[in-house]
């Protein structure tokens, strides 16, 4: 396992919900990342973000890690969920909320 793959794996496995995105939750740097943050904020879940613009190795490595070509990428309890479009489709169908509930993801206000 390469160093960047190991770093990504550590992040994905140790965070309940993590969004690899361009920018930060407070200042997304692309519309897709902004939409992904808005969905998670609307659902009120606690989540962490990784700004791929700050680390070129992570930016390329995450695409290889998930075998998914675009960013943002959402992971829940170690499992790749998808990008912005998939998040939107799942949200509109009620599937994203169901997934987060089933995986017992903490609400934002529950996060210490």
TrEMBL record:
SUPFAM superfamilies: Thioredoxin-like (SSF52833). Coiled coil: none annotated. It holds the Pfam family Glutaredoxin. CDD domains: GRX_PICOT_like (cd03028). [2Fe-2S] cluster binds at residue 30. The keyword Thylakoid does not apply. GO terms for molecular function: 2 iron, 2 sulfur cluster binding; disulfide oxidoreductase activity; metal ion binding. PROSITE patterns: GLUTAREDOXIN_2. InterPro entries: Glutaredoxin, GRX_PICOT-like, Monothiol_GRX, Monothiol_GRX-rel, Thioredoxin-like_sf. Keywords: 2Fe-2S, Iron, Iron-sulfur, Metal-binding, Redox-active center. The keyword Metal-binding applies. Residues 17-81 form the Glutaredoxin domain. Belongs to the glutaredoxin family. Monothiol subfamily. This is Glutaredoxin.
């Amino acid at each position: 396992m390469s160093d960047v793959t190991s770093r990504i794996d550590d992040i994905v496995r140790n965070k309940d919900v993590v969004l690899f995105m361009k920018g930060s939750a407070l200042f997304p740097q692309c519309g897709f990342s902004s939409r992904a943050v808005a969905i998670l904020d609307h659902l009120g879940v606690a989540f962490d973000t990784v700004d791929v613009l700050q680390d070129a190795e992570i930016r390329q490595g995450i695409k290889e890690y998930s075998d998914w070509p675009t960013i943002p990428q959402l992971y829940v309890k170690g499992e790749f969920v998808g990008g912005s479009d998939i998040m939107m489709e799942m949200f509109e169908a009620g599937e994203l909320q169901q997934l987060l509930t089933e995986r017992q993801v903490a609400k934002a206000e529950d996060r210490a």
